[in-house]
Amino acid sequence: MTRPPLPPFDTLSARTKVRLAEDAWNGRAPERVALAYTPDSRWRNRTEMFRGRDRIIAFLTRKWTEELDYRLIKELWACDGDRIAVRFAYEHRDAGGAWFRSYGNENWAFDAEGLMRQRIASINTLPISPDQRLFHWPLGPRPGDHPGLSELGL
Prior knowledge:
By secondary structure, this protein is an alpha+beta fold. It is 23% helix and 40% strand. The protein has a 6-stranded mixed sheet with strand order 2-1-6-5-4-3. The radius of gyration is 15 Å and the shape is globular.
């Protein structure tokens, strides 16, 4: 199975890869998202480190059960060969109705088929008030005309 665009990445193909990842995560379907990763993909996410699609599915299932009304924007930071660096922000609320914005960076490494073999994420989360929310599109992929992180000043 291949997952275009394939490495080596240039700026255009890396931006395409980033947007495809953003759209998939905004779809909040763990089994679908996990198909973008190698079966033995290595992850570091905050304090969790694990390997494999089954663990990715379990992680994302738990994440999107706890992080309600999740909306994410990713932006390419850099690319070289089979690696892409991304910065991102996402907004969500908890079951009590409190809103949060998380900011972070991800380092991705891909195999020759375009599957992500490694994901290293560093993330900080801050509480925000409802009037500080910036991501207001309907649940699902971000519309093409919605501003990105740089345009939003994030």
